[in-house]
Amino acid sequence: MLRVVKARNARSKRALEAREPKEVEDPRTAIFVKCTSTGETLNRAMKELMSLKRPNAISFSKKNTVRPFEDTSSLEFWSTKNDASMFVVGQSTKKRPDGLTFVRMYDGKVLDMCEVGVDKFVSMDEFKTKKSTPGHRPLMHFASELFDTHPRFIQLKSMLLDFFGSEVLEGIHMSGVEHVISVQLAPTPDGLNNASSVGLTDVLKDEDTKNLPKVHIRSYTIGLTTANRAPHVELTPMGPSFDLSLRRTKDADPEMWKQAMKRPKLKKQDVEKGLGKKKKNLEVDEMGDLRGRLHLGKQDLSKLQTRKMKGLKPSANEVGDDDDDDDDDEDEDEENEPQSKRRKA
């Protein structure tokens, strides 16, 4: 039976309502936790990641005894207390040096985890270039097909997207796009592209991680030059850069994953925009605009009524002698017409 927390006063009631599920969730808050043993490289790497995540980042200054893959009670307590849905746990041991564990939460419980090893790290200070403004959401670029086929890289891609870009944006201003984070893979071994057909339990073994390619994360600032109508984009390295290797992982429980991926019922206006059930001859393009298709019969353009303009009428000189025979008939008709019709004409 679930424990129901009742509010004692109006202030606690507002706090509980703010943590209730919403149709559009707030940006994810990440907590950076250092374990008992962390090296200099790992401390600098966590500091640089926190600078990219700000202002939605919380850092624990004290070292804690945390083993995410063995006991998750501490993480669940901190998640409920700080209203955070992600953790970055840093721990360096003899067997697994310079390890970073990304933990994703759902409803105060651990959803899934992914551990990576920091093989190489280059700080921002070594790049003497312009930096992006803190708080701006980056563009994400994944340059490998394995991010859509391999289970391990699909999970890593989902983790990075939730870590860097969990906020929902209604519009994008060109001046607000300042940097891009590119995620690439090292050369892929032969036969790894068929990993999508392999069972998930067979792929997630520890011995299989040795054959997986390394992950290269690079950050660039975006420069726009408007010499022509279309702006020219220039990318400048700003740091930090990471070379990561995949290690342990914990997959989400199927029932919890089903609840986490459940979407609220769409409103009528969202259905009309094309977000709901697909309608006939209606589709949404890549920019999110609703486009419709009309099927019409064959039209007879000879009977098409065009707009009459004085500039399109033939002049008296162009009429020429072809109309000389008709002038006499027109003069006789004008004499027979009443005077009121002559004035209207």
What's a concise summary of this model?
By secondary structure, the chain is α+β, with helices and mostly antiparallel strands.
Structure characteristics:
Rossmann fold, alpha+beta, ten-stranded mixed β-sheet, 26% helix
How far is the first residue's CA from the last residue's CA? 92 Å
Number of strands: 12
| CATH architecture name of the domain at 25-167 and 174-189 and 205-252 | 3-Layer(aba) Sandwich
Name given to the CATH homologous superfamily of the domain at 25-167 and 174-189 and 205-252: Brix domain
Largest sheet: 10 strands, mixed
Strand fraction equals 15-25%
Average pLDDT score: 78
Order of helices and strands: HEHEHEEEEHHEHEEEHHEEHHH
Parts with pLDDT < 50 across at least 5 consecutive residues: 195-207
Helix share bin:
25-40%
The whole-angstrom Rg is 33 Å
Q: Which fold name corresponds to the CATH topology of the domain at 25-167 and 174-189 and 205-252?
A: Rossmann fold
Shape: extended
Count up the helices: 11
Q: What structural class should be given to the helix and strand makeup?
A: alpha+beta
CATH class of the domain at 25-167 and 174-189 and 205-252: Alpha Beta
Description:
This protein is of the alpha+beta class. The chain has a domain at 25-167 and 174-189 and 205-252: 3-Layer(aba) Sandwich (Rossmann fold). The protein has helices at residues 10-18, 40-53, 73-82, 146-149, 151-164, 200-203, 254-260, 268-272, 316-319, 324-336, 339-344; strands at 30-34, 57-63, 86-91, 99-106, 109-122, 139-142, 179-185, 215-225, 232-237, 241-250, 282-284, 290-292. The strands form two sheets. Strands 1, 2, 3, 4, 5, 6, 7, 8, 9 and 10 form a ten-stranded mixed beta sheet that branches. The N and C termini lie far apart (92 Å). InterPro entries: Brix, Rpf2. Residues 1-22, 254-345 are annotated as: Disordered.
